[in-house]
Amino acid sequence: MRQSRRSRFGDLIRAAGPSDRRRFLADLWTARGWETTVEGSVVVARRGDRTERLAVVSRSRLRPSPTVPAEATVVVALGDPERTRRAAPDDARVLSVDEFYDLVRYGLPAGRGDDLVADHFGVRLDDLPADDRGVGARGADEAGGAVVSPLSRRLSSLPVAPLVFVALLLAAVVVHAGP
Question: What is the pTM of this model?
Fold first, then answer.
C-alpha cells in the first residue's frame, strides 16, 4: 500500500515514543514563539499572559478511549479525533494528525517545519513521498524515513473489544483449568 507525505508524517509521530513526541511538540511551539517546558505528560507553553498545556495522545491497545490529561488545553489525537474529543476536557482544542501536519508544514516560516521534522525524526518532510507514489512495499528505508514495522501497524489497527474479549476468555480458561 502506498502512502502520502501526510500519512508518512503520521507514521513518524506514532512510531515515536511519548517523550519524543512531547519534545517535538515543545520544539514546534517554541518555533511558533512560545516558551515551553515539558512537565510530566504535558508540554506547558507560555507567551505573554497566555498559557497552553499541550498533549499528544494515542489510543491504548487495551482501552477503547485515549487517556487525555485533565489539564490539557490543546490535544494532538494520533488516533480517532472524535474519540479524543469525547475524552478531552470540554474546552480543549483537539487536532487530528492531518491538522497537526498542516501546523508543522504551513504554520511556520518556510522550511522551519522541515527542519524540526529532520531534527527529531531524521528525515525532511520534502523527502517523504508527495502523493500516492509513496514508499509502498519498498519500505521507508529507501525514502529516508523511519521504519515502522508492518506488524505493528496491523496490530494497532485491530479493534480493541475483540482483543479484550480474547484476553478475558484466556484468563477464564486458565482460572478454571486450575491446579
Answer: 0.67
Q: How far apart are CA 64 and CA 156, in angstroms?
A: 12
The strand pairing partners of 44, in sequence order, are 37, 53
Per residue, what are the HEC states of 61-89? CCCCCCCCCCCCCEEEECCCHHHHHHHCC
Sort 176 into a burial class: Cβ within 10 Å, 0-12 / 13-18 / 19+.
exposed
Beta bridge partners of 104: none
Q: How far apart are CA 121 and CA 176, in angstroms?
A: 48
HEC string of 79-129 equals CCHHHHHHHCCCCCEEECHHHHHHHHHHCCCCCHHHHHHHHHHCCCHHHCC
pLDDT(153) > 90 = no
* 160 vs 164: CA distance, rounded Å: 6
Residues in Cβ contact with 96 at an 8 Å cutoff, skipping those fewer than 6 apart: 77, 81
Strand order in the sheet with 74-77: 35-39, 42-47, 50-57, 74-77, 93-95
85, amino acid identity: R
pLDDT per residue as tens digits for the range 22-39? 999 999 999 999 999 999
